[in-house]
Design brief:
Helix content is 73%, strand content 5%. It is mainly alpha-helical and 122 residues long.
Length: 122
């Protein structure tokens, strides 16, 4: 069932979201300072490719202070806008019964887009 959901997700916009994440990731990784942020956009891009059947967990060995600082920087410089975009599309898709599973995936992506440091995708 998750394969069919992922296939429909890709056909109706998921591939575009993933491409956006991957392009932004390439631009961020080109700079030395942006490498940690580029790695997080890669994580978001992979999640945007196959959101059904994926689970986001907090990492057990996550270093709290550094992750908190990086999440604050991420939140200020774009994470908030990314999360708002996912919330917007989630609300639009939640209007129809067919769109509810896709809305849930957008809400999952919004949560990761707010604070991606210290999380892993399983």
């Amino acid at each position: 069932m998750s394969f069919i959901g992922n296939l429909i997700w890709l056909l109706f916009g998921g591939i575009m979201i993933a491409i956006e994440y991957f392009v932004c990731s390439i631009f961020l990784i080109l700079t030395i300072v942006g490498i940690p942020f580029g790695m997080q956009t890669l994580k978001l891009g992979v999640l945007a490719l196959w959101p059904f059947g994926s689970e986001v967990r907090y990492q057990a060995q996550a270093s709290g202070c550094l992750n908190t600082l990086m999440n604050v920087i991420w939140l200020i410089f774009g994470g908030f806008l990314i999360a708002l975009t996912h919330i917007f599309w989630g609300l639009i898709l939640a209007i129809t019964i067919i769109g509810i599973p896709f809305a849930r995936q957008h809400f999952k992506l919004a949560g990761v887009a707010l604070t991606p440091f210290g999380r892993s995708i399983v």
